[in-house]
Each structure stands twice: as structure tokens, then as C-alpha cells.
Amino acid sequence: MHFRILFALLILISFFSRPALAQQKLKTENVILITLDGFRWRELFTGADADLIRDKDYVEDRDALKKLFWDDDLLVRRQKLLPFIWGTLAKEGQLYGNRQHQNLVNVSNQHRFSYPGYSEILTGFADDERINSNDKKDNPNRTVLEFINEQKGFRKKVAAFGSWDVFPFIINAKRSGIPVNAGFATAEDLRLTDREKFLNQLQTQIPSPWGSVRLDAFTHHYALEYLKKNSPRLVYIAYGETDDFAHGGHYDAYLKSAHQTDAFIKDLWTWVQRSPKYKNKTTLLITTDHGRGNGNGTWRNHGANVAEADQTWFMVIGPDTPAFGEMKQPQQHYTNQVAKTVATLLGINYLAERPVGEIISSALTPENLTATNK
To answer: At 240, which CATH number?
Structure first.
């Protein structure tokens, strides 16, 4: 009995002596949440896969691809693939999920494919019973986007853009009232910019290789134009090409798409740092909806029966995130932590129908605290 009392007292002392994030004023006023569909932690942290580059079934011109993305040094190799992430974000932000250091990030849902993965990211919990397919059915769960859109100061300051045409259902656009430009939707506004008009026209003229996913360039530029015009405080951007190229067995296109998405993220961050409304007030949080297999036979796929399909990652950069870079200490995180982290950055206590994943506390630690990552 005495041991239990002592243990309880120690817990209370620890709780009241540590800095409370909720009680501290954060610098972040805006959040841009970004996802790369089905992009593996292996390419993120080790660059191009030598075995897949050599496989003629997945690569048309192996020499050309090696010239673009290969180097024997994995540190050089990963920077060739993702120059902004490793040249800027890794120096000024944080990256989680390098399993070579036992720094683990996983989905908590059992299905390990897109709709359940995105729902987990956006709600903060897995709903394995009701969210069990990629069908176009409205999400019965309220997302953090919808929750924040209902808060004072955020009404009509939340928007989403996605390449996959299922996002209006994942976000439940009808119920939430959040503008969701996804799939092959065009920009709709009484005051369209010249670029939006051009994107609307161009999207009808350039066919996508897939019936339900448009090319990411449209998603990116629609989102950037919306940011410039409407100054939202929370934007979700979901790039989709990496997953579709992988399913098709096009490893060369998968790598090139990841490289281009890295350039898109650089484009966003450069604009943020030049905009008075966003500079030093904006955090980017980047992640993926699921992993995928490893090896010749399984890298194209994911799902409940595919090893490594539950293995994910995330990255954070912003004014409240210490520049720890690549997180190398052994620890376990889950995709369900993203929703509450987004809300906390915006000064909001996120509450959902079910218990949600805890905030990624090390990504939100005030800069004046001692860094523990060595």
C-alpha cells in the first residue's frame, strides 16, 4: 500500500513539474498538413532501392535512373532523391520513422490501405469496423479538420486538396462544410485567379493515367492558389501519385514522383517564408497513410497481409519545432497522433468520439528546453 501511495505521488510531482504544452503560447498560427500516398520509409531514409533499380520489370532505363538518384553513400543517395527534405527540413525540423535506429512509426488500423489510413490521420483513431474499404462512403467520424472548422477564429479557414477523388467522402464534405478540391474537381469561386482558370482548362486537356486520381501538379497548384487568395489557417494537401505508380510497378516513376513532391513541398515552404501572413507562424506536418511491402514481389502492394504495410513516418518543421533533425533514439509513435498534434499547434484541445492518439510531444517542445535527441 505504501508503495502505491509513493508511486502516485511521484506521478503527480512529475506531471506538475514538467512544462505543460497547453499552457504555453505557441508561435504557430497556421498548419499545412501534407501526405504522400504510400511512400515507403525505406526511400525516405535510405534513398533509391538498388534491387528495384536493377529490375527491368520495374525500370525502363536503369542507367538513366541511376544517374538521377543513385549513389553508394545512402546519405548522398537520399538527398539526391529528396533534396529539400534532407537539405532543409532535416536541418530545421524533425523526421521520425527510421527503423534502422528503432525509431518507429506505425498505423494503428488493421487494414493498412488508404481510406482507413487517411481516416486515422484525420480523426486520431482507427475505426476498423466501419472504415474497412476504399468505397466512396461518407466518413461517419468527425475529422480534426471538421472539429477545427467549428472553433472560433477558424470558421471558413480550413480547406483540403487531394489527388484522389475519395477525399470528399473521407472528410465528409457534405456534413463538415469544408471545401474539398479533390479528384478531377475544378476551382469554383466567383473570383477565380487567372492561374485557377488556366488550371481548370488544363485539367480537362491532360488525361490522368488513373480513373480516380489526378496528377499531383493540379492538386499542388490549386492548393497554392487557394493559400494565396484566401489565407486559410489549416490546409490539408494530399499528393497521390507515389502510390499509383507503385501499384503499377513503375519504380522509376515512383521515384520521380517523390522527387517532384519534394520540390512541391519546397515550393510551399518558400512561399510560406516569403508571406507576411505565414512567415514564422506556420508549421508543416508531413506523413503517409500506409507503408508497403519490401522486395521484388511485394513493394507494389500493401494491406493487412503485407509485411511492412503498417510502417510509416512523419516530419515536422515550424516555429515551435526544435531542429533535432533525424530522430535516432528508439521510440514508438503512431499515425493516430497526427490529429491532436495539428490541433495543439493551433492552440486547440481536440476532442473526438473516441480516445485519440497523444500529441507528438517532442515536435512541440518549446525551443528553450534542452534537446534530448543526440
So the answer is: 3.40.720.10
